[in-house]
Amino acid sequence: MSKWGLWALLARPVRTNAYLATGAALTLVAIAVAILGVIWTPQSPTGVDLLHRSTGPSAVHLLGTDQFGRDVLSRVMAGAWRSVSLGLSAMLLAAAMGVPLALAGAYWRGWVDAVLMRLVDAVLSIPSLVFALLIIVGLGSGHGQAIVALGVAAAPRFVRVVRGAALDAASQDYVVAARARGEGAFYTQYREILPNVWSPIVVEASIFAGFALMGGAALSYLGLGTQPPAADWGVMVREAQRYTFQSWWPLLAPAATISLAIVGFNLLGEGLRDRLHLVDRRADE
Amino acid sequence: MALARGAGPQEDLTAVDAAYLLRRFFYGIVSLVILSLITFACTHLLPGDAASTILGESATPEALAALRQQLGLNRPLPAQYAAWLVGVLRGDFGVSTTLNQPVLQLIAPNFANSMGLAAIALAAAASIAIPLGVIAAVRRGRATDATILTGSYIGISIPDFVVAPVLITVLAGPPLQLLPSSGYVPLGESVLGWLSHIVLPTTTLTVVLIAHLMRQTRSGMLDVLASDYVRTARLKGLPERLVLWRHALRNGLTTSLSVLALDIGYLLGSIVIVEEILAYPGLGRLTVYAVANRDLPLVQGTTLVIGAVYVLANLVADWVHGLLSPRVRHP
Amino acid sequence: MSDSLLSIEGLVVSYKTEGLRRPVLRDISLEIERGEVLGIVGESGSGKSTLLFAIMRYLTSNAVIESGAIRLEGLDLLRASREALGRLHGRRIAMVYQDPAQALNPAMRIGAQIAEVRRYHFGEPEVVAGRRALALLTDVGIEAPDRIATSYPHQLSGGQQQRAMIAMALAGEPALLLMDEPTTALDVVVQARLLELIRELKRRTGVSVLFVSHDINVVDAIADRIGVLYAGDLMELGPAKAVLRRSRNPYTLGLLAGIPRIDQRVRLRAIPGSPGARHDADDTCVFADRCAVAEPLCRATRPPLVEAAGRLSRCHFANDPARFAMLSRSEPLAVNPSSSTASPTSLLLVSGLSVDYGRRGLFRRDVVHAVRDVSFALRRERVLAIVGESGSGKSTLARTLLRLQRKVAGAITFEGQDVFSLTADALRRFRQRVQIVFQNPASSLNPRKTVGELVARPLLLAGVPAERARERAATMLAAVGIDQGMVARRPRELSGGEKQRVAIARAFVTEPALVILDEPTSSLDASVQASILELLDRLKIERRCAYLLITHDLAVVRQAADEVIVMQAGEVRESGPVEAVFSEPRHSYTRSLMSSVQKL
Predict the structure, then answer these.
(1) Which residue in A119, A129, A219 has the most chain B C-beta atoms within 10 A of its own C-beta, making it the best mutation to test that interface?
(2) C-alpha span between B198 and B203 (Å, rounded)
(3) Contact B159/A136, CB-based, under 8 Å?
(4) Which helix (H) or strand (E) holds C590?
(5) Cross-chain CB nearest to B228 (options C87, C99, C365)
(6) B236 close to C168: Cβ distance less than 8 angstroms
(7) How far apart are CA C263 and CA C91, in angstroms?
(8) pLDDT tens-digit map of C9-20
């Protein structure tokens, strides 16, 4: 990407855009915790300690223990990687599928676009969670399958958003000029149109990462994603549900972290949307 | 009153733009067909089919072969798909491999329960979210708007499977224990019982839906308020209240309508989780059960029905939007 | 003085962006009497729209009214309460907007939108207001008012929409009408009729009009007095004839000298630079750095508005007419001679071309016969103009020539070869030999690329090695007046005129034999148009190429073209040498076009 890209956008002094700041902060924290959780946690996330079941926060267990005596904080940290990486991977998959399709549809128009839109409409008519369930039926349960399921289920959303922006760009004279010069399809789509639709892609990617994270946790909650006893936020919520009368912490901790991570991605996306819109608008003066 | 038109190179004179309505209908059908294809394809991705599920692990190869023959699982996939599709059109969705009942019979009561939830949640959400969204747009940039907007961002981000357990813990757990934490009582049996069982699921659904709807209404209204014709209305000297009611809302609410249709997608997804958490006997819970147990005919049936609801809702929304839009009423 | 209808005194308006204050209107003072039409002429950045919206107190939130007063019949609008303004808007003062399709509520019938004014301001019951709306529609020249009153905006043509908007503005029986470029979006014939309507309304009702436009010809057609606005400053203000025929301001004169005329070819003189607003011009004349007769005094002191020969002019030398003599001389040019070196064989031959345009999807049948059986020939180094209004098919024709559109019938032959059956190699050569310059440089240059990349690309596509391509691009940019420092910039950092130069450089860099110019100056400011036309003329001679000039502007045709084709609804109505067609138009459509053009 040229100077006029994400770098320039981030390097400018951040104006009073609270959403962007908060979102970026939360997202960075989530990613940091996720990476940290892979290499170190205060205690073992799976170590059972039957003597200290369902205790509240203490010096040793900052967030308490769950019904098996496992340290909640460690489990939350260990589970972070799974959730965050799932969110990001599913998002990348969705983008990798959706963006080329959208560009192709906007460029070729005609029946290519019509068929594409009908496919997109059809897939979108299944709620993404249900679609994910379908794919899990086909592929079985597990972390990798969840990534594929959520990514494929979300690709149509990318297509819709990017196609809109790409159609706008494609109607501009510089695309007509490219055609008139005899530019090939690939060049026109990727070197003429794509550089002008980065903004919506980035915004959508960020927001979708949050929803993918949510979807992944939902699948785990339903028992169709990561399997226990592995630490996973969705699994933790499900298990903790039954024992809330003993301690609220095993439920609250993963619930809070899931929510905060998703809020982080969403705010990041919304903040970027505002900021990019501002930047784009200034560019037209 | 004559519905004549002005000058312009259009074709048909007094009819509604029937082409538009027909086109949306046709697209709906196409979507459904593709949907059925996708459903069928997904359920047949993995090896291991209905026969082995029914007979279990210890089945003999001969028994498996015989059952396969009987169920028609030996035929090529396209043939199986065609047969299934034809069956669906006739109302025969096959037989559940785990529950040994016709799929349609299983779906029907659950479908009704889920639609009840959906309708209530939609109505509740719309009546709260749309006014809030309009208020946020009108008071853009001020404290009210900021609060509403932040609220909606948070609402969108908190998953149903977090909201529900929290609500259960607070409302259904000790010490309050106001509501049952799961289950269902049919309306016929006891109104109060039915009510007490649907409060939690509908509340959960409504919370998330409100957040989505509020944001979308707000952004739609913002666009309308920034439009040239609202400027014209204001500069005609009309008081802001008139401008809002006569000019802005009329155009802004039609966008809300199309947005509502989109939200049915969110709603249907949420229903799956919420029913599972609250053990509510609906279509969503049935779907999860079917997936968890690899009951292929049931999976196909439930997914198809859910998808069909969405397609139908969108079609209705398209039609209503078209009929409300002057361009379609008077092409 | 005090009984003038509208009196603007010392109005100063700025915009706040990112902590900076950008002045938009500097100390504007003017008056409008009852029953008079004041026309304000301004290019982009002049502040003309801001002026209108300041009067209506409907500026954006980042606008600051620093000082001044705007009195309507004595009441200061800038300090009036919202309620008082609400009573005035639509009633004593009403506005007509530039884009009627957007300014009318798409979900409300026309009659209702007009009647609303009567019901709210006069308390008239619905039936009475409805009848009044019908009467108003008749007043503005709409036939079948009852049909229009029950229609929605999208069912009306552009001209009808604008008339409806005028009717809506008149509904309040206003003393003052503000008009923001009301005819810019309309075709020339429709525009002429609308201007006639405005003249008639003024005669009949005695309403005053403040009419803002970028088009001097249009303003001249209806204004009693004219004000010339530049970069937020009123440069000249006085009776229309005085300002236009005997101007005492270098900017006005510069503007006039750069406008092509429909009655003869003249040597156009461009104002160098571009009309961006200068931010720090509190102590200089805003026009000084583009002015041909500027002195050090002009850069040291802001000239006051002085009285000169019956009008006001903001120039230190307003009362020194000798200075302006050189600026006001207008040299007629000879007609382009038939170049003797031009080969008699056609460069481009189009015969019987028909093109359909439309979407034949499911349940949809909007097929338009955009081009019907068109034939013409273009010889080397000649300029052929294709003139028509919107919907005439001229743009579709241009796209078909470039193979961007499929033809239905006919043939296009370029340099002896059939354009639609070229081999891959021949096609590549064709694309180098035939280029196009689009109307709007802001959308024809990819905003994410640098100037250098944009101009070099056609060469890279033709197989020229990267280093050599860069060199040739740089040379070409210099030839169009873009200096080396701009090569790494992006289009948004350039002015409109500079962008168009880059687009022209891009077209010429492959050394084409034919360049299609699709409304090359229509999106540019008046003071910039002349320089682009001059550049195109120079390049044509230097590079010996032919032009196919597509335009709706007859004056540009007279200025730049040798032959002309007049198109309407996809068909050729008339064709021939420009002189002949313009002095003795034979087809009725050509005649109506010629008579609709507003001339100074």
Answers:
(1) A129
(2) 8
(3) no
(4) helix C588-596
(5) C99
(6) yes
(7) 42
(8) 999 999 988 778
**C-beta atoms surrounding A282 within 10 Å:** 11
**CA distance linking residue C74 with residue C7, whole number of Å:** 8
Chain A residues touching chain C at CB-CB below 8 Å: 2, 4, 114, 172-174, 176-177, 179-183, 192, 195-196, 283-285
Q: How far apart are CA C264 and CA B85, in angstroms?
A: 75
- Please give the model's pTM, rounded to 2 decimal places: 0.87
Fold of the domain built from segment(s) C380-408+420-596: Rossmann fold (3.40.50)
Chain B nearest CA to C157, separation (Å) = 6
User: What is the rounded CA–CA span in Å between residue C576 and residue C387?
Assistant: 12
Percent of chain C with pLDDT over 90: 71
Residues of chain B neighbouring A76 (CB-CB closer than 8 A)? none
CA of residue C407 relative to chain centroid, distance: 31
Which of A125, A237, A251 is the closest to B310 by Cβ? A125
Please report, in tens digits, the pLDDT of each residue of chain C (600 residues total): 457 899 999 999 999 887 788 889 999 999 999 999 999 999 988 999 999 999 999 998 889 999 999 999 889 999 999 999 999 999 999 999 999 999 999 999 999 999 999 999 999 999 999 999 999 999 999 999 999 999 999 999 999 999 999 999 999 999 999 999 999 888 899 999 999 999 999 999 999 999 999 999 999 999 999 999 999 999 999 999 999 999 999 999 999 998 998 888 888 888 888 777 666 667 889 998 889 888 899 989 999 999 999 999 999 999 988 888 878 767 788 766 655 455 667 899 999 999 987 765 555 567 788 899 999 999 988 999 999 988 888 989 999 999 988 888 899 999 989 999 999 889 989 999 999 999 999 999 999 999 999 999 999 998 899 999 999 999 999 999 998 899 999 998 898 899 999 999 999 999 999 999 999 999 898 888 999 999 999 999 999 999 999 999 999 999 999 999 999 999 999 999 999 999 999 999 999 999 998 876
Query: In angstroms, what separates the C-alpha of B165 from chain A's closest C-alpha?
Result: 6
DSSP letters for B211-271? HHHHHHHHHHHHHHHTSHHHHHHHHTT--HHHIIIIIIHHHHHHHHHHHHHHHHHHHHHHH
Alpha-carbon distance of B109 to B102, in angstroms, equals 13
Contact B12, B327 (CB under 8 A): no
Cβ atoms of C456 and C470 within 8 Å: the answer is yes
Look-up of token digits 């081009």: C371
CA nearest to C108, candidates B8, B330, B13: B330
Instruction: State the DSSP string of B96-131.
Output: -TTT-SBHHHHHHHHHHHHHHHHHHHHHHHHHHHHH
The answer to whether A181 contacts C446, with C-beta atoms less than 8 Å apart, is no
Cβ C94–B4 below 8 Å, yes or no?
Answer: no
- Whose tokens are 């009582």? That residue is B185
The beta-carbon neighbor of C120 closest among B227, B237, B250 is B237
Q: In what order do the strands lie in the sheet with C63-72?
A: C20-32, C6-17, C63-72, C75-76
Q: Which residues contact B309 (CB under 8 A, 6 or more apart)?
A: B115, B264, B268
Residues in chain C within 8 Å Cβ distance of B246: 108, 116
- From chain A, the residues in CB contact with B27 under 8 A are 118, 121
Radius of gyration of chain A (CA): 22
